[in-house]
Amino acid sequence: MGKILDNILSYREMCDIENVQTMQRGMNFRMNPSYSVFLMSQKSNAPYSDKIYDDGITIEYEGHDSAKNYIADPKIHDQPEKLPSGKPTQNGLFIKAVNAYKEKLSEPEIVKVYEKIKEGIWSLKGYFDLIDYKVVNDGRRNVFRYILKLSDKVENFDNNDLRLTHTRLIPSEVKKDVWKRDRGKCVLCGETKNLHFDHDLPFAKGGTSLLVNNVRLLCLKCNLKKSDKIE
């Protein structure tokens, strides 16, 4: 099973990592030649319905609407697979990737997922395999939902020596409460940079991702020190 990263980044740091000035779209097919990028949010006011399954390693990510320069009110129209020109939208590009995988024509598309914790603060959740999609009626229109599972291929895309021991996604509400409780600082040394969400008791030893009291903020240095002590 792959590893979840949960690095904490500012919006600027996230853009710099992806070598772009801004990240205006939530869906970014092949932003990097080796992977695509999704920006997700589970906040109550988020424009799309993204969620984490109970297995802790699967994400359901909602596709995106038509651009406002094509339709006055995108929220009342089905999410598009193609532009008026006939070219594929971002939805269409990811659907094509899923179909190629299901027809055994290619490996699953690797998607790097960032999650919005609060304004200007993001968490790098890790790398996921895009394995399926479905069309769902949300009561007003049809939307796409993409299914992603934590990838085993993370080592091929990340040069960071830090490999956290848990393999379950920490819910967004837990992250938000931990960030507020720990005041955006490492709980051991007070560092405000290179932070990570860390399990006090590692998942592999029975710790949970679901409770605020088992998750804390650690900086890279303190996290590595902790890792050295885990037998």
Structure, described:
It is a single chain. This protein has 2 domains: 1-160, SRA-YDG (PUA domain-like), CATH 2.30.280.10; 165-231, Orthogonal Bundle (DNA Binding (I), subunit A), CATH 1.10.30.50. The chain has 4 helices and 10 strands; from the N terminus they run βαββββαβββαββα. It has helices at 11-17, 90-102, 172-182, 220-229; strands at 7-10, 27-32, 35-40, 51-52, 58-62, 109-118, 121-137, 142-150, 195-199, 215-219. The strands form 2 sheets. Strands 1, 2, 3, 4, 5, 6, 7 and 8 form an 8-stranded mixed β-sheet that branches. Strands 9-10 form a two-stranded antiparallel ribbon. The two termini are 19 Å apart. Residues 159-167 have low confidence and may be disordered.
From the 3D structure, determine the CATH topology of the largest domain.
PUA domain-like
Strand content: 25-35%
Shape: globular
**What does the radius of gyration come to?**
18 Å
Which runs of at least 5 residues are low in confidence (pLDDT < 50)?
159-167
Order of helices and strands: EHEEEEHEEEHEEH
Secondary structure topology:
Elements: E1 7-10, H1 11-17, E2 27-32, E3 35-40, E4 51-52, E5 58-62, H2 90-102, E6 109-118, E7 121-137, E8 142-150, H3 172-182, E9 195-199, E10 215-219, H4 220-229
Parallel strand pairs: 3-6
Antiparallel strand pairs: 1-7, 2-3, 4-5, 5-8, 6-7, 7-8, 9-10
Observed structural traits:
4 helices, single chain, DNA Binding (I), subunit A, PUA domain-like, 231 residues, 2 domains, 10 strands
